[in-house]
Amino acid sequence: MRDETKQVLQLYVERADELEQGGFINYVREKRPIGINITGQEDGSSLIDAVGPDNEATKAMIATFRPFLQQKPISFSSIVSLCDDPDLSEEWKTQVTSVQSAVNSYLDSHPAIISAPGEPLPIRRTILDTFIYGKILHIDDKKKREIYERWQSQDFYFLLLITEFNSILLNLSRAILGIAKLSKDELEK
Hints:
The protein is mainly α. The protein has one domain. The protein has 8 helices and 2 strands; from the N terminus they run ααββαααααα. A two-stranded antiparallel ribbon has the order 1-2. The longest helix is centred in the C-terminal third of the chain and has 33 residues. The termini are close together. 26% of the residues are buried.
């Protein structure tokens, strides 16, 4: 395997290990819920809230996770370019290409939630980008911030979007950790 390929795979595995050790993944490992909790109150009303990892765990997760989305050489789109290395196994190439394709299809699909009145149902990629760049890590993207605030003003719909966002992070983390395992195995050959 080329030295450059080896270095990228080592970096990928290292960053994936950091992701795996984070609070978000530990929350899931403890089999704690991600979803919506509805609790009846004594007065007959209901309290509805999103359940999932806390904000600190989510922010730390995104800081570690974001390079897999957009930074060379370990982003989903960049890692596939390593398939040009003739010394990588066909299994690695096939699996990584398949994972990247599945991730793109998943992000470009609509979640199984209802849309708010007057709101088009966003695709998962839009949900992910809007939460990351409209609130969690950046607030300088005015358009995404406006979308985030509009979503946030629609209580129940926003809880559905929070739950979907957490599910997106979890599913993408599984893809990242899968590629990391394949890469570890490849490095040990």
